[in-house]
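Work Package 4 report. The design task specified in the project plan requires that, given a folded chain encoded as structure tokens, an amino acid be chosen for each position. We show below one input record used in the internal validation round.
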């Protein structure tokens, strides 16, 4: 962990509230010089991997994200084979095996970004293959409807985190559950029904998802990387502005701040629609230091980065109580250093499959 000074904490706090702020705007808000902001930003960039990422509406560029998990009570080789297959697919962006779980099962969580063509049908058929004999894996999947990112720096003094105890956590989220119909959902991007992809927007979206502040020059470099001839700088600038305005929302991504434990809370219910508890989590995930919520019909993922001191079994018990008897919850510890791939990787793969000429 790297200690954050008061200046770094103030700047980061402003960014979390409004990730779209440029350095000049931050300097004005904080009452300091532009060069001071630039120096602090550079320190956070180099020491804490500070990035402003883009939370994308994948449907607007012709994709569906599916997510889910597979589990095996025996820790058999079947789950390992499934994990290897997931890692071999260029459409899969996340594969997270469990190190330890609240149900003592072995699990693997995954996410995939699928185009609206026969590759999607093929991918689902392969999932079904692992559900059948001789594998017979329990695999739960759902199309993603909403994705949200949250960070609560009010719990952080630059050196240590104050994590809510079980009572306060249950009281806070439990109180919100009573107002589920009127709870505002912030920092959330709803996923549209996939439309035919516009390839030019697709490339811009891939670049902006990795870096919300990406420029037309960055986009031109991506074209060249894919072996494509870039359009004019003016055209690329218009494309970047269009995608940033209509398809993507910024969020802060930062590491090395004492959130050393990665917990995945997998929630399943029998409903064919998104559960009320899913809505509550999207609205209240800011209760935690750093959280990501992914939801769809009958499945919800709450991905948390928390201090190592947090008792994850107690956290599971609190969330199970709040979710109610209609839901099944399993929490597992995942490798903090395990990194997935980004949309750029999927787009690069799909572009390489398009015949030239």
């Amino acid at each position: 962990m790297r200690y954050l000074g008061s200046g770094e904490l103030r700047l980061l706090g402003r960014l979390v509230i409004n990730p779209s702020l440029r350095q000049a705007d931050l300097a004005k808000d904080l009452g300091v010089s532009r060069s001071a902001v630039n120096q602090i930003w550079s320190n956070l960039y180099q020491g804490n991997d500070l990035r402003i990422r883009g939370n994308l509406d994948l449907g607007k560029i012709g994709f569906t994200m599916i997510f889910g998990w597979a589990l095996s009570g025996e820790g058999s080789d079947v789950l390992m084979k499934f994990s290897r297959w997931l890692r071999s697919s260029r459409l899969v962006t996340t594969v997270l095996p469990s190190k330890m779980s609240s149900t003592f099962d072995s699990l693997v969580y995954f996410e995939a970004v699928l185009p609206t063509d026969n590759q999607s049908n093929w991918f689902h058929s392969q999932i079904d293959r692992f559900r059948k004999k001789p594998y017979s894996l329990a695999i739960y999947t759902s199309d993603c409807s909403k994705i949200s990112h949250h960070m609560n720096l009010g719990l952080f003094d630059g050196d240590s985190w104050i994590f809510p105890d079980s009572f306060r956590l249950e009281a806070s989220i439990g109180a919100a559950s009573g107002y589920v119909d009127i709870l505002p959902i912030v920092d959330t991007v709803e996923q549209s029904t996939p439309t035919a992809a516009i390839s030019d927007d697709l490339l811009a979206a891939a670049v902006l998802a990795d870096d919300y502040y990406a420029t037309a020059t960055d986009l031109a470099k991506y074209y060249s990387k894919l072996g494509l001839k870039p359009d004019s700088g003016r055209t690329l600038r218009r494309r970047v502005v269009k995608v940033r305005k209509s398809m993507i929302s910024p969020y802060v991504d930062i590491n090395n701040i004492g959130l050393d434990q990665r917990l995945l809370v997998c929630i399943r219910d029998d409903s064919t629609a998104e559960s009320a508890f899913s809505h509550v989590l999207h609205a209240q995930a800011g209760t935690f230091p750093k959280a990501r919520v992914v939801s769809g019909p009958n499945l919800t993922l709450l991905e948390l980065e928390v201090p190592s001191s947090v008792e994850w079994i107690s956290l599971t018990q609190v969330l199970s109580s709040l979710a109610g008897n209609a839901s099944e919850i399993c929490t597992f510890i995942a490798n903090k250093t395990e990194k997935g791939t980004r949309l750029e990787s999927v787009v690069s793969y799909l572009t390489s499959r398009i015949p030239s000429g």
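The longest helix spans residues 34-48. Validation will be extended to a larger panel in the next phase.
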